[in-house]
Write a structure and sequence with these properties.
By secondary structure, the chain is an alpha/beta fold. It has 3 domains: about 40-165, 2-Layer Sandwich (Chitobiase, domain 2), CATH 3.30.379.10; about 175-505, Glycosidases (TIM Barrel, Alpha-Beta Barrel); about 530-575 and about 615-710, Alpha-d-glucuronidase, C-terminal Domain. It has helices at about 1-20, 40-50, 60-75, 110-115, 140-155, 205-220, 240-250, 265-270, 280-295, 325-335, 355-365, 425-430, 445-450, 480-490, 495-505, 510-535, 565-570, 595-600, 610, 625-650, 660-690, 705-710, and strands spanning about 50-55, 90-95, 120-125, 130-135, 165, 175, 225, 255-260, 305, 340-345, 375-380, 400-410, 460-465, 575, 615. The radius of gyration is 27 Å and the shape is globular.
Length: about 725
C-alpha cells in the first residue's frame, strides 16, 4: 500500500512537472516556432522544404540563418538540413540577388525593384529545373525580413504551394519610443522596470536585448528611442553613450537603429554654457561636437527625439524663439552624419481656452520652416492618447513639413497593464480618417506615408509597452498591440482582423474555434473600454496624475487643463465641450466638409458628440433615448461586454496553454471589477448634474460617489 502511494505520488509529481514544463510564460512572444499542429499542413511543409540555404555572411545573414534553423526545426519537428545545392529540389533558397547565383536564373528584376531596400520577394518557382521556394531581396536586411515573413506563413498555417509575394514598408521610420528613465523606472510603464540595464552595460549583454531585436525585426520595426522624452541629459555623456553604442551593436544586424531623447538644456547642464539658445554660436558648436562624438561611437546613430517647452521641459520658447528654431538647431548638428530629428508637437500651455487647439495654433504657422531632416511627431489625437479622440488636425494642416505619427502602445488611458485591449482598431481608426486636405480620400495614412504631399522622409512611432516582466508586456495581450503597431507601420492596409488572426495563431493556437473566439475578444475590446470609460466623445476624466481609474470629479489642479472638469464641462444643463463657433471653434481647424460635420449637432458622429458639443441631458438622441439614458446605456454595455469577454475566454479552457489561459482569466477578472468601478463612479458623478435616474432595469451602483472619490492610489505603477 505504502509503495503504491509512493509510486502514485511520484507519478503525480511527474505529471505536475510535465505540465509545468509545457506551461508557456509568454517570453517567446509570437516567435514560438512550436510544431505545426495540422498534420496535413505539416506533411505539405515537409515536402516543400526538404532543405534550405541562405547566402551571404554578414551578421544580418547569420541572424537570418539562425532564425531559419530554429524556426524550421521547431515548426517541422525535425532537423531540416542546410544544403549547398538544389539537389532533388524542394529547397528553400534565401539571399540577395548579388550573393546568390542561383537566383540569377529567375526573372526577379521588377519584383525586387518594388521590394526596395528593406522589402523582399517570396515566391515559388523552378530553379535549375527543380521546384523551389525563393526568399529574395536587394539587401541582407530585406532577406531577414523575408525569412521572418516566410516563417510566419508556416506559423499561421498558410498554403505555401503557390507563393507570389512582394512586400515592402510604406513608411520609412518605424520606431518604438521607450519612456524609460536611467534609474530603471518607466514612465507610463506597466510591465515592470526598464529592459535596459544601464548599470551593467556596456559589458553585459542580456539575452533579452537580442530577443527584443528579433521580435522587432520580425514585424519590421527599424528604430528604437531608448530613453524617455522627459530626458535626463546624462544620456548624452560619454559614459552613457558607450552603453548606447553597445545596444546599437546588438540591434544593428536586425536593421534597428538607435535614437536618443535629447534634453534641450544639455549645453547648460553638461556643457556648462550659460544658455541653450539656438542663436548662440557656442550652443551650436556644442551640439555639433556632441553629434560628432555620438557618431564616432555609433556611425549609424538615427538621431534625436525632443520634447521641448512641454510639461516643464526646456525649449526654444525660453529664448523667445520658435519650435522650428529649436528643431533646426539639432537638425544642423546631425545632418552631416545623415541623422534626423523627431520634434514633438505635444506642446501646450496650462491655461488655454481650448488645449485641443494649441498644437495647431503653435505649429501650423511654422509649416515650411523646419529643416528637411526634421519630422514633426504628432500624437494621433489633439489631446493625449485618450481611448478615443478625433485625429489631430495637424495631419492635413502642414503640407510642407515631414509629419510623423505618434501612437501610444502602453495603455496609460486604456486600462494600463491589466486590461485586454487590442489597439489595432484605434490605430486603424486614426489612419483611415479622412483629413480632406486635398479633397476626399486624403487620409491620415496618406499624410503619414508621405504620398499625399510627396514626402520621402516619413515616420511612425509607438510608445512602447515593454518592460522587464517575463512576458514583456505584463498582460500577454499587450504583445498583440506591439505586434499590430509593427505590422501596420509596415503596411497600414492590413486590417485589424488580419493582424489579430496572425497574432492569435502565432501566440495561442491555430485551432479554428480559438482563433474565432479570441479574435472576437480582440476586435471588440477597444470599443468596450471606450463604452465604460469615455462614451460618446467624453475624455480626460481619469484619476489625477496616475491616470488610473475614473476621476471625473478632479478639479483641484492648479493647471486648469489638468482637471477633468475642464474637459467634460458637466453642469445642470448638459455635458460636453463646445468646440463649435459658439465655443472654442476647434472645428474650424478641420477641413470642410469635416468642419461642418463636426460642428453640426445632428451630423456630428456620435462617437465624437461630447468632444465637439455641450449637449443637454434631455436631448433626444437618434436612438430615441435622452442623452442621459444613452450615456448610462453605454456605461452598462461596456461592463456587459467585459463579462462577455470573460465568457468567451472561459469557453476556451483546455484549448489554450494552461498558464496563458490562467493569467488572462485573472486579468479579465481585474478588468471586470475596474469596468464596474468606472461605470458606477461616472454614472453617479454625472447624475449629480443630470439629476435623472439610472434607467430602470440596470443594476444600481452598490457604493456611493463619496466612496469612489475617496479612493487613492499613491503607488499606482508608471507614474514616474
Ligand atoms: O500623457 C502625458 C503623460 C506623460 C507624458 C506626456 C508626453 C512622457 O501623462 O507621462 O510624458 O504625455 O507625451 O510627453
Amino acid at each position: 500500500m505504502k509503495r503504491t502511494l509512493i509510486v502514485l505520488g511520484l507519478l503525480i509529481t511527474l505529471a505536475g512537472l510535465t505540465t509545468d514544463a509545457r506551461a508557456d510564460d509568454g517570453y517567446r512572444l509570437w516567435l514560438k516556432y512550436d510544431l505545426v499542429s495540422n498534420p496535413q499542413k505539416l506533411r505539405d511543409y515537409r515536402t516543400s522544404v526538404r532543405g534550405w540555404m541562405i547566402s551571404g555572411s554578414s551578421r544580418t545573414i547569420q541572424a537570418a540563418r539562425k532564425e531559419l534553423r530554429n524556426g524550421l526545426n521547431g515548426l517541422l519537428g525535425s532537423e531540416i538540413p542546410e544544403v549547398d545545392g538544389i539537389g532533388e529540389g524542394n529547397i528553400l533558397i534565401c539571399g540577395t540577388y548579388r550573393d546568390n547565383p542561383l537566383l540569377r536564373g529567375i526573372d526577379l528584376k521588377d519584383k525586387l525593384e518594388e521590394a526596395g531596400t528593406e522589402g523582399f520577394v517570396i515566391m515559388t518557382g523552378k530553379v535549375g529545373g527543380k521546384d523551389a521556394i525563393i526568399v529574395a531581396a536587394n539587401t541582407d536586411i530585406g532577406v531577414l525580413h523575408g525569412v521572418f515573413d516566410f516563417l510566419r506563413l508556416l506559423q499561421t498555417q498558410r498554403d505555401i504551394g503557390d507563393l507570389d509575394i512582394v512586400s515592402f514598408p510604406r513608411i520609412k521610420l518605424r520606431i518604438l519610443d521607450h519612456w524609460d528613465n536611467l534609474n530603471g523606472t518607466v514612465e507610463r510603464g506597466y510591465a515592470g522596470f526598464s529592459i535596459w540595464n544601464w548599470h551593467t552595460l556596456p559589458v553585459f549583454i542580456k539575452r533579452r536585448y537580442i530577443d527584443y531585436a528579433r521580435a522587432n525585426a520580425s514585424i519590421g520595426i527599424n528604430g528604437t528611442v531608448l530613453n524617455s522624452v522627459n530626458a535626463d541629459p546624462l544620456i548624452l555623456t560619454h559614459r552613457y553613450l558607450v552603453k548606447v553604442a553597445a545596444l546599437a551593436d546588438v540591434f544593428r544586424p536586425y536593421g534597428i537603429k538607435v535614437y536618443l531623447c535629447a534634453n534641450f538644456d544639455a549645453p547648460i547642464t553638461l556643457g556648462k554654457l550659460k544658455s541653450a539658445s539656438p542663436l548662440d554660436t557656442n550652443v551650436r558648436k556644442w551640439w555639433k561636437d556632441k553629434a560628432d562624438e555620438i557618431y564616432s561611437l555609433i556611425p549609424d546613430f538615427g538621431g534625436f527625439l525632443v520634447k521641448a517647452n512641454s510639461e516643464g521641459q526646456p525649449g526654444p520658447s525660453d529664448y523667445g524663439l520658435t519650435q522650428a528654431d529649436g528643431a533646426n538647431l539639432l537638425a544642423d548638428a546631425v545632418r552631416p552624419h545623415g541623422g534626423i530629428v523627431m520634434w514633438r508637437a505635444f506642446v501646450y500651455t496650462y491655461n488655454p481656452k481650448d488645449r485641443a487647439k494649441q498644437a495647431c495654433e503653435i505649429f501650423k504657422p511654422l509649416d515650411g520652416k523646419f529643416a528637411s531632416n526634421v519630422l514633426l511627431q504628432i500624437k494621433n489625437g489633439p489631446l493625449d492618447f485618450q481611448p478615443r479622440e478625433p485625429f489631430s488636425p495637424l495631419f492635413g494642416a502642414m503640407p510642407k513639413t515631414n509629419l510623423m505619427m505618434e501612437f501610444q502602445i502602453t495603455m496609460e488611458y486604456l486600462g494600463q497593464g491589466t486590461s485586454t485591449v487590442f489597439l489595432a482598431s484605434l490605430f486603424k481608426e486614426t489612419l483611415e480618417s479622412d483629413t480632406y486636405a486635398k479633397g476626399k480620400g486624403s487620409t491620415v495614412a496618406k499624410v503619414v506615408d508621405g504620398s499625399l504631399d510627396g514626402h520621402t522622409l516619413t515616420g511612425i512611432a509607438g510608445v512602447s509597452n515593454i518592460g522587464a516582466d517575463r512576458n514583456w508586456t505584463g498582460n500577454e495581450f499587450g504583445q498583440s498591440s506591439w505586434y499590430a503597431f509593427g505590422r501596420l507601420a509596415w503596411n497600414h492596409d492590413l486590417t485589424s482582423k488580419q493582424i489579430a488572426d496572425e497574432w492569435i495563431r502565432m501566440t495561442f493556437s491555430n485551432d479554428a474555434e480559438v482563433v474565432a473566439s479570441v479574435e472576437r475578444i480582440m476586435l471588440e475590446s477597444r470599443e468596450n473600454v471606450v463604452n465604460y470609460m469615455d462614451p460618446l466623445g467624453l475624455n480626460m476624466i481619469f484619476g489625477y496624475d496616475n491616470h488610473y481609474g475614473p476621476g471625473p470629479w478632479v478639479d483641484w489642479s492648479p493647471h486648469p487643463d489638468w482637471n477633468s472638469t475642464y474637459y467634460h464641462k458637466a453642469d445642470s444643463l448638459g455635458v460636453g465641450f463646445d468646440r463649435t463657433k459658439t465655443g472654442s471653434d476647434a472645428v474650424s481647424q478641420y477641413h470642410p466638409p469635416l468642419s461642418a460635420e463636426f460642428a453640426s449637432l445632428t451630423e456630428c458622429p456620435l462617437k465624437y458628440l461630447l468632444w465637439f458639443h455641450h449637449v443637454p441631458w434631455n436631448y433626444q438622441m437618434k436612438s430615441g433615448k435622452t442623452l442621459w439614458d444613452d450615456i448610462c446605456y453605454h456605461y452598462y454595455a461596456g461592463v456587459d461586454s467585459v463579462r462577455e469577454m470573460q465568457n468567451i475566454w472561459n469557453s476556451l479552457k483546455g484549448k489554450i496553454d494552461k498558464q496563458e489561459w490562467n493569467d488572462e482569466q485573472m486579468f479579465l477578472d481585474i478588468q471586470e471589477k475596474e469596468a464596474v468601478w468606472w461605470r458606477n463612479a461616472c454614472a453617479l458623478y454625472f447624475q449629480t448634474f443630470s439629476k435623472m435616474p439610472i434607467p430602470a432595469g440596470l443594476e444600481k451602483p452598490d457604493k456611493t460617489l463619496e466612496y469612489y472619490e475617496s479612493l487613492k492610489f499613491p503607488n499606482a505603477p508608471g507614474t514616474w
